[in-house]
Write a structure and sequence with these properties.
single chain, 258 residues, alpha/beta, Rossmann fold, seven-stranded mixed β-sheet, two-stranded antiparallel ribbon, disordered N terminus, binds S-adenosyl-L-homocysteine
């Protein structure tokens, strides 16, 4: 891609890693379609993000903490500079390795469902697991809400990409793991919240076992060509309750690591 990055990308701190084209600042604002903002470049991305938040709220996202967390995470730092002008549209975008960054509305919906049972005070000490780090965006949003977050990815290139993307955000409560998420991450269990970002034919058994009693898990589950969001609550030691929700479209949950 040879497209220029949008003007606001020039404001990224250099610690943000490979998506921080600080040197391109002047060319990014030079064209007639990118008038200089009298209020500063950083406000352009903040405005785009604020518009996205308003759109998510209109679309039914009610949880103010989830909306705030999405507002706090610069999504443009998680995608290729050539696509960054679309960072605040409600779309999934390619991140390499045949994978995608999820739509903001999907991220919001999954997290909102997964923590609806927890008041803010409990979220602050909750342990959360994400399966399918991808570029790290949803993990960053979760780290703004939960006390401890572990996110696991099976593609080493993406695991490393996520590490680079997240470095500048300094989220001390977020740990990235490399491995097959079918096994969960036993070291961090039991979890209060589990969010799965790829669709399997069933929710893997180890993930159910790694839920604390009272915990919630949200995962897309495939049936043939269709996928639906499954919400599972662990109601007691040996009992899980399933609610099947929206039709969704996720990349497949795959076995092993690459
Ligand atoms: N959470 C991401 C979405 C990434 S797409 C976001 O913030 O937008 C889903 C990711 O799940 C892909 O990166 C894919 O490689 C990963 N994945 C698929 N199967 C997996 C498995 N068994 N264990 C861990 N990650 C897996």
């Amino acid at each position: 891609m040879t497209r220029k990055p949008p003007a606001w990308m020039a404001t990224l701190p250099s610690s943000a890693g490979r998506h921080a084209p600080v040197a391109r600042r002047s060319s990014a604002v030079a064209g007639p379609l990118a008038p200089a903002s009298p209020t500063g470049l950083g406000l352009a991305s903040e405005r785009a993000r604020a518009n996205m938040i308003a759109q998510l709220a209109r679309g039914g996202v009610r949880d103010p903490q989830v909306l705030d967390a999405i507002n706090d995470v610069p999504r443009h730092q998680f995608i290729d500079p050539g696509l960054a002008s679309r960072a605040y549209e409600d779309v999934s975008l390619p991140i390499g390795h045949g994978q995608t960054i999820s739509k903001p509305s999907t991220v919001a919906r999954m997290i909102e469902l997964a923590c609806a049972h927890l008041p803010r005070s409990q979220r602050a000490v909750a342990r959360a697991l994400e399966v399918g780090t991808g570029c790290g965006y949803q993990a960053a949003v979760m780290a703004r809400i939960f006390g401890q977050v572990i996110s696991i990815e099976r593609v080493r290139g993406l695991h490393e990409q996520a590490r680079d993307n997240l470095r500048g955000l300094r989220l001390a409560n977020l740990r990235l793991a490399f491995g097959d998420g079918h096994q969960g991450v036993a070291q961090g269990a039991p979890y209060d919240v589990i969010v799965v970002a790829a669709a399997g034919e069933a929710v893997p058994e180890p993930l159910l076992e790694q839920m604390r009693t009272g915990a919630r898990l949200v995962a897309p589950v495939a049936r043939g060509d269709q996928q639906a969001l499954h919400l599972i609550e662990r109601v007691s030691d040996g009992e899980w309750q399933l609610t099947v929700l929206d039709a969704v479209r996720f990349v497949p949950l795959r076995s092993g690591t690459i």
